[in-house]
């Protein structure tokens, strides 16, 4: 997300590299390095973190720590545990479709609350650093990047549940949470225009190779996924 645009709430996956100047971090699956991680951002500022090593959602800013009750972190931990489980299942499913060993699953979803009151949402999944499937909020349609993703697209659109779930989250739940987080950190986040929020999630397969990741602006730059074996 571009910090010059209205506010956003986002959760990001591994290896999102919209800006080559963004610092990169290398990770390899071994003891002490989490296989799954979920980080929440508001306007590019990390505010929450969950990983499979610590096993609990935690605040990354003092204003998030002061602003929410213990029950919030309990519920976020449960949500992240569910995401961790689903990510592993999805990773194994796609491994079978490509007939090869994939090592990473990355997921990015979030919303912009524009200064004119409009909401802009984004949902995107990648595997091993390559685009897999994304969701267009305007048309409520999924867009597949290749034949393997087309199987998922047909399944989701046939069932209809996933499109409804993403639409509800991106248009309603995400902006509501964004407004709440901005209220908690109003002094630190105060600026003209809108706000942004996002969630960054990634999963590294147990015996995968090393991978690089960085987090930077997302709009208006196009998304790029990068994997290094």
UniProtKB/TrEMBL annotation:
Annotated MHC class I-like antigen recognition-like domain residues: 25-189
SUPFAM superfamilies associated with the record: MHC antigen-recognition domain (SSF54452)
UniProt region (Disordered), positions on chain: 1-30
One of the protein's GO biological processes: antigen processing and presentation of peptide antigen via MHC class I
Subcellular location: Membrane
Key word Transcription present: no
Stretches with biased composition (Polar residues): 1-13
Membrane topology: Single-pass type I membrane protein
Pfam families linked: MHC_I
InterPro entries: MHC_class-I_related (IPR050208), MHC_I-like_Ag-recog (IPR011161), MHC_I-like_Ag-recog_sf (IPR037055), MHC_I/II-like_Ag-recog (IPR011162), MHC_I_a_a1/a2 (IPR001039)
Protein name: MHC class I-like antigen recognition-like domain-containing protein
Originating species: Zosterops lateralis melanops
